[in-house]
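To assess whether the prediction recovers the assembly geometry, we first specified each molecular entity separately, as shown.
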Amino acid sequence: MSRRRVVITGMGTVNPLGHDVADTWSALMGCASGISRNELFDAGTFPTTFAAQVKDFDLAAHLDDAEKHEHAGRHCAFAIAAAAQAWKQSGLGEHNDIDPADIGIYLGSGEGSLDFANFSSLLVDAWNDGQLDTRRWAELAFERMNLHREVEQEANMVLAHLAAEFNVRGPAYNVLTACAASTQALGEASMQIRHGDASVIISGGAHSMIHPFGVTGFNRLTALSTRNDEIETSSRPFDMTRDGFVLGEGASILILEDYELAKARGANILAEIVGYGSSADAFRITDQDPEGDGAATAMRAALKDADLSPEDIDYISAHGTGTKQNDQVETRAMHAVFDKTAPNVPVSSVKSMLGHLIAAAGATELITCVLALRDQVLPPTTNYHTLDPDCDMDYVPNGPRKAPVNTCMSNSFGFGGQNNTIIITKCH
Amino acid sequence: MPDSRVAVTGVGVVSSAGIGVGPFWEALTAGQQSVKTIDLFDASGFGCNVGGQLDSFSARKFVPKDYRKAVKVMARDIEIAVAAADLAFRDAGIVTPGIDPENITVNPKRLGCSIGAGLICTDLNEIGSAINTAVVDGKFDLQAWGREGINNLTPLWLLKYLPNMLSCHVTIIHKAEGPSNCITCGACSAHLAAAESARIIERKAADVVIAGGAESKLNPMGLLRQDLLKRLATGHNGTVGPAARPFDASHDGTVPGEGGGLLVLEDMDRALARGAEIYAELVGFAGACDPAGAAVTQRNAGGLDVAVRKAIAQAGIGPEDIDLIVAHGTGVADEDAAECQAWQQAMGPAAADVPAFAITGSIGSLFAGAGGCELAAALMAIKTQTVPPTVNHASPSDGCVLNLASHARSAEINYVVSGAFSIGGQSGACVFKRYEG
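The predicted structure of the complete assembly is given in tokenized form:
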């Protein structure tokens, strides 16, 4: 039995390099850096003082009636704007004959950021003799904490806003598999369409962890770059001098659609999702499997799902975080999967320019893959200057490259060992 | 038709009514009330200070010896999931490397894991101890925090609280290398996890998937958020038993609890080949949402009517074929009413005819842990052909048409439907079919 085909008919993004797809792509083609001194809070004394921030964002510039999302948290607002762009491009707004119960949402969206000022002051003011006076804490919390500020932190709230904005009544999933979340969301969403659980799915991810606890958490894990004196070039995936990832924020949304529906309504089809693979390292919570076995399993599963061989892949959008471990393990895993063809397949990490958007990273990177197919050009890995013997592939260093591109693989790996791979092609 | 059918061959439950599916079911059918005053911390400052609390619970005895150290980096939600996973695999008779590395009966590459989770709250005493090292002139000081304070947090602090860590610890302990996910859709997370996992088995991306959800809301942040939402039951503080009153005329809110449930879903052919005991077949499942969910102060049932209707249709049956409804029953008046309306919209007259029950009266509302326990109860009901009582349900609330009873009933149950919904407007439903060899 032939399976339903899944195509991409709309894309939108808000990220440190742009507030839409076109601006983002031209920034990536120009090797721009989205990284700058942290202005979201004063991180001057933190081990890491910089981040890849979304700047000058205003939801009202993307929506006619932004007021109805007045309670939306920062990452949620990014998601609404990105979804509005994607929805518009898809043209689905003009097709109100689609049953809302046949439209779904599947996101890899992060938790909202904590109300840090109130949270920290409460812990000080209700602290008594070396421990928390919970009764006092509750009294003060009811005075200071805000209902919506608290509830919007729940990771399912972005779904709620998108459902309201686009009148969705079909399946609604949010998954939070750390840095792999939005790739997993897009992969499972494409499976839902394939299985017939929905005909259209608004999918992607959103996240902002550029708040004191986010930076604290990653700094304690020593996962972040601390190159405070070379901020713009601090994200150095695959380079010998890489010293950690750069925390970013943003949202990217893609409209996935049953191919037959897209064709019937004359939609502009941007690409087809042909393969998806998911795996777990099942190794340690702190480290990746050093052999890259889990990552390789996800890539192989995606190839098998797509019925493709490694030599069919023209470009790999790497997870490429810029941590010592990830880039080495990922390279090892690509070698394991691609074997003899490994030297011939170009790989790049746009995190060198965008930073690491955590849950939103995979969706943002998949958009760059779609654009690579469209323009027959590969986005580069910037800040790549010093060879690491453990990272010996073709990383498309320091400038975009014209190349024939028909099929792209995009990888995302999460803290804790969840691995996801998606393969897209031009739609024929 | 999908390539594979999906059997449920194992269930693991952690709840205030019992740990392990046997004790849990015994307590449910006996109508045991397990909601009492929270003593994990002083909850007297909140509108509700009773809950479905686990007593002297630790994951330590549910992990292999060489993994016990890791329990220290598990938030309570994670401990619940880890314990439920151990119970579920043992119940299924599946030997993972975490149970006995010498006698493994499952291929790690073909073993998946999908555990729903909530917004895990950081331990306020842990973070407070660190925060209070960064106080200048009686006030928290961000510069002092960045410079010195953060070093008072354990390096792995963040990893205790990432929601995917429920799945990650379980995959590590049991060497589950197949597809792994973490759904964060509140109380319907386990239903959605089961649905997605069934699809994974159907398309042969795994042979066995452990799926469900776990959460503990019994912490100050958890109670605060529910209190701000004005969802908490406030009328029975200081009592043992009666606070959670699903669909009862005197329901006055939700009673938070902690716990979770995990199911072992297995390719039917594989289950039959190994002679596994089969609880039931998962034959229908669906998710849905309600655009009204964004308005969190206005109660709704998250499109439960759509999810239930689709799940029943997917099972290839009609509402009249359903023999049992497992309702969600938060005990919040408007939510109970919206839920009853959803069941009626989805099932018509059958919604009132078919026996129904809710487990919240016994164990409280478990949020991401709720669905796993509800599915476990649905499976035990079909296995034992018994409808447990709805604890604390005496007279029906406004608009409640569900056929609930305060005593256990025996019934012929061939199909059972379970549905749940989240704050924020998502829902999920699953239909199980009796398996008769």
